[in-house]
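Final report, closing paragraph on structural work. Over the funding period we assembled a curated collection of sequence-structure pairs, and we close with a single example.
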Amino acid sequence: MVNIRSKIYSYFTKGNERSVIVKKNIAASLVLKCVSILISLQVVPLTIDYINPTKYGIWLTLSSIIAWLSYFDLGFAHGFRNRFAEAKAKGDIRLAKEYVSTTYAVLFLLFSVILLITLMVNKYLNWSSILNIDAVYNEELHIVFGLLACFFCINIVASVFTTMLTADQKPALASLIQTGGQVLAFVCIYILTKITTGSLSALALAFSGIPCLLLVVVSILMFCGRRYKIVAPSLHYIRFSLTKKILGLGGQFFVIMISMLFIFQFINIILSRVEGPEAVTQYNIAYKYFNVLNMVANIILTPFWSAFTDAYIKHDGLWMSKVQRKLEMMWLLCIPISLVMLFSCDYFYLFWIGSDIQIPFSLSVTILLYILLQILVGVYVYMINGIGKVRIQALIYLFFALIALPTMNMACEYWGEIGVLSVPVIVCLCQAIVGRLQIQKLIKGKSINGKMDKIIKKEA
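Its predicted structure, as stored:
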């Protein structure tokens, strides 16, 4: 027992400092993500019982539409993440504080305008026509959409704090805040099932309002604390001149995000219009089940984004090369695990949501392939994003975004839920192939540069 403890202690304390930080964050995040996964799985049957399968499909569609607002941050969050990590790697705390202050200011101004426009447009939308549902839902959906929009825009601005934590190579701490919000939301939904009848408005308050409030409170408290007070946002440190530098990289992320909106986020709407809200429920239940694997993979991948920023600046190509091989091995390990999930999915669906909703096995197979490709793309994209060389990635997404909607709509009419996933699957496959070629070239170039720097230093 003592020997096992010493080996565990040695694993988490010895080795490259960057690797030690990554390993500690992965371990902590895995524990938190287990809690998050359990809650996300349990909240589905709880929510369906609270409302009904049709309303749940409507809820999922509305939520996905609201999520589009995050794509209009102009890539600021991703650009900030890399710039903050670069400033920290160089030890420039003042610049890091300026990035924090400027990002908060720009996102606050931007999403205040976006929220105002969204609320005005919402007054004139005919939701029953847009989602192809009964007109009886129209009035309630106006209220729900307004609530979701308000909380979502506040959350986008407040999330600068968790983005900063991730850039500071502390994604586990960011996960703790997010998981805490999920736990509180779950408790609130459970209470709602006991004291109220099915209400989408109450669901919106619990699902979106509670986590948003927690994030705001925690970020204020931690910025007032000793550790992050030095980089806390301040009006005196707002430098709008830095906006161009953040957007120089963030603008490319913005193209990626808008393109991904058309490729990945219209699935629920297309399904709702062509197949009906029940098809949205089927797709999302299967996706949530298999996405557990993707969630675990993202726990492992997330710390490497900012770690690669640090390694690239410091010319540590050898470390990057080793990490690439390990992450590819992780993906190969996902294949047998996913097959076990596939052949046990019917039993899990029955245990999870009962027999009221039937999930076709063919849909499970397609979503499994989709998830595996998403993980493989993540392996290369997280590394490339950390380095900041995202132009090729942006061009691929942009090309497919131009043809995504008509192609997915036509495929859905012919092949249903499986057809609508054809475009996202092809996009992921292309990004994975190109991403691997690109990251190998980047790492090779940085390894050569790193060796040259060491030779020059020795000669000096």
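The chain is about 85% helix and 0% strand. The CA atoms of residues 64 and 265 lie 7 Å apart. We thank the funder for supporting this effort.
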